[in-house]
């Protein structure tokens, strides 16, 4: 299968590079945790309760006016497809444990995913490309308003929405922005910024994993507090922090460019060379090079490559996608070979589009 | 400075324990700090997990005794009738088992939430519409009650009677939408 065709079917709405500040903010995510009254939380419920929750939630959503919702039961999906859903950030790794009776309902463009029986009965998640906190929240809020009329939510006047984890109690909302911060990372400023943001009640972490390591210089910034603040306050606090980070990143980029242009160009073009010609491409190196190429595009140093390359290839370079693309199970070394193939083919297809455009 | 505990390795973590009798500070090496199970500082900057955070709850706040001892003598606390979770188990696993747990542990929760949510203990955000209506009704009834008291004190008995009827009508409406709201709240 050609890479273009494969990607056409695989690109989720949020992976395109649109939206405000999309040179730095890759995507915005809102997640609302909700539970139903009368059923124990997934950590303590029986298979029977799980099925009843699943039946109620899916019935409510699939009979709504909204067309194009797709329902998938985790236990009925092949392992590889579950893996791919995780890599696209549409479900959490936790949901895919087949013993947990998890299910997911996806909107057609995959901006909305509703997880059933994850840590909570219901997790409404909206992912939008670029920096769109308000739009993403509005979407999630609409779905929440619809569901609260259909289903008996567990809510308390003092504690708000009741969730399994006390860190979500209250609004049940986690808002996060995924940011590409190469200049702050190169200049090591990020090490000072992270503790400062943590003190403001936000969490910063590498987006692909829990540790502090941030492959591809991609960081996720999200709110920690869910109780005692309104949704609006949480969103505007996060927005302010993100805007400050954006301004810092832009200033650092300008500084890098003015102080060491040749060294920077050298680094970025070398990375473009690696992903254009490598025959073996381990994921760490791939992430680093992608970040460099994307920075090159943002700074106008690298032309003829579309900026969506970072969003897309960060997803497609993961093991599940590579195996789906290959149509077979792959060992770690085979994955590095396939990853190199995939990157070369993707960059070649960019050039072809470019040439076609020039001819016309 | 050497670690207060092993006196071998250099101290790299300052461990502050807030107790009823004030706070105590200990300088520990990473290894000892980890072994005390009261490890507040993670070199990987990973946010503290809820379990880690709550697991030294009793050790950190209820007593200035060493953690191990407190743990053994620690009471189970109230037990949730719906999922059998005890308050102690809740602190261990860092998760509620069901919505009823909130009711069961209601008295203990403000302190837990205050630690987790920057001092906040009460929800101020969005409410489901049915609760929103109940909430505003309750507030109105409370206001009318105050006005009624005032009227009685001023010996404006006719006004007081009118206010009483008004309050009753609102209470009936509250009971009505209570059927669609949370069961445990109806008898309030």
Strand order of the largest sheet of chain B: 1-2
> For the CA atoms, what is the radius of gyration of chain B?
25 Å
Assign the structural class of chain B, choosing from mainly alpha, mainly beta, alpha/beta, alpha+beta, or little secondary structure.
mainly alpha
Main sheet properties of chain B: 2 strands, antiparallel
- Assembly context of the chains: heterodimer
Largest interface: A-B, 51 and 42 residues
Mean pLDDT of chain B: 74
What is the mean pLDDT of chain A?
88
What is the string of helix and strand elements of chain A? Answer: HEHEHEEEHEEEHHEEHHHHHH
How many strand elements of chain B? 2
Strand content of chain B: 5-15%
Supply the number of helical segments of chain A: 12
State the helicity of chain A in percent bands: 40-55%
C-alpha geometry of chain A: globular
Helix-strand makeup class of chain A = alpha+beta
Q: Rg of chain A, please?
A: 21 Å
Using the alpha-carbon principal axes, give the shape of chain B: elongated
Please write the string of helix (H) and strand (E) elements of chain B.
Answer: EEHHHHHHHHH
Lateral arrangement of strands in the main beta sheet of chain A: 2-3-4-5-1-8-10-9
């Amino acid at each position: 299968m050609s890479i273009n065709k494969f990607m056409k079917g695989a690109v989720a709405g949020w992976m395109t590079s649109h939206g405000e500040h999309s040179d730095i903010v890759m995507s915005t995510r809102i997640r609302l945790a909700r539970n139903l009254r009368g059923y124990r939380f997934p950590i303590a419920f029986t298979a029977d309760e799980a099925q009843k929750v699943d039946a109620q939630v899916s019935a409510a959503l699939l009979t709504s006016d909204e067309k194009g919702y797709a329902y998938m039961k985790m236990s009925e999906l092949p392992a590889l497809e579950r893996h791919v859903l995780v890599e696209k950030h549409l479900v959490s790794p936790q949901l895919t444990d087949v013993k947990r009776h998890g299910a997911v309902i996806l909107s057609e463009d995959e901006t909305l995913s509703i997880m059933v029986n994850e840590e909570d009965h219901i997790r409404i998640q909206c992912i939008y490309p670029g920096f769109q906190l308000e739009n993403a929240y509005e979407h999630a809020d609409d779905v929440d308003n619809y569901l609260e009329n259909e289903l008996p939510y567990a809510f308390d006047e003092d504690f708000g929405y009741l969730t399994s984890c006390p860190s979500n109690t209250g609004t049940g909302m986690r808002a996060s922005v995924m940011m590409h911060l190469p200049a702050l990372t190169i200049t090591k400023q990020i090490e000072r910024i992270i503790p400062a943001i943590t003190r403001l009640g936000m969490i910063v972490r590498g987006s692909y994993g829990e540790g502090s390591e941030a492959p591809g210089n991609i960081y996720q910034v999200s709110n920690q507090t869910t109780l005692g603040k309104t949704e609006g306050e949480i969103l505007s606090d996060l927005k302010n922090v993100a805007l400050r980070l954006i301004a810092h990143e832009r200033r650092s980029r300008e500084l890098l460019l003015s102080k060491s242009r040749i060294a920077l160009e050298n680094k970025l073009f070398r990375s473009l060379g690696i992903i254009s010609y490598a025959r073996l491409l381990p994921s760490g190196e791939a992430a680093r090079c992608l970040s460099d190429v994307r920075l090159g595009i943002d700074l106008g140093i690298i032309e003829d490559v579309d900026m969506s390359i970072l969003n897309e290839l960060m997803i497609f370079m993961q093991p599940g996608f590579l195996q789906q693309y290959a149509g077979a199970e792959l060992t770690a070394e085979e994955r590095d070979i396939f990853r190199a193939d995939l990157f070369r083919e993707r960059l070649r297809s960019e050039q072809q589009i470019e040439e076609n455009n020039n001819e016309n | 400075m050497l670690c207060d505990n092993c006196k071998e390795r250099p101290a790299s973590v300052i461990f502050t324990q807030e107790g009823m009798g004030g706070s105590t500070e200990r300088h520990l090496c990473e290894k000892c700090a980890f072994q005390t199970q009261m490890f507040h500082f993670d070199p990987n900057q990973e946010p503290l997990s809820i379990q880690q955070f709550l697991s030294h709850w009793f050790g950190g706040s209820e007593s200035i005794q060493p953690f191990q001892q407190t743990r053994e003598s620690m009471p189970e606390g109230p037990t949730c009738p719906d999922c059998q979770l005890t308050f102690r188990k809740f602190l261990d696993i860092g998760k509620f088992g069901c919505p009823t747990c909130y009711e069961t542990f209601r008295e203990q929760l403000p302190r837990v939430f205050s630690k987790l949510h920057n001092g906040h203990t009460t929800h101020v955000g969005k409410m489901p519409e049915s609760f929103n209506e109940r909430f505003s009704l309750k507030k109105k009834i409370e206001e009318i009650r105050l006005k009624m008291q005032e009227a009685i004190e001023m010996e404006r008995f006719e006004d007081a009677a009118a206010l009483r009827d008004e309050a009753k009508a609102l209470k009936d409406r509250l009971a009505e939408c209570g059927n669609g709201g949370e069961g445990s709240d109806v008898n309030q």
